[in-house]
Write a structure and sequence with these properties.
29% helix
């Protein structure tokens, strides 16, 4: 659907960065899209 719509970049925000956000961003990148994770718009329970 993204390719059919002409989308080439996917922007990610959300919580649980090391789980859902990271794996989704990696998957999109592996499928040939540009993957952007907005650092000010993600969160993690491990803030170290």
């Amino acid at each position: 659907m993204l390719r059919n719509a002409g989308i080439i970049t996917v922007v990610f925000t959300g919580i649980a960065t090391e789980f859902g956000v990271e794996s989704s961003a990696r998957d999109v990148f592996n499928r040939g899209f540009y993957s952007v994770v907005v650092s000010d718009c993600v969160s993690s329970p491990d803030n170290t």
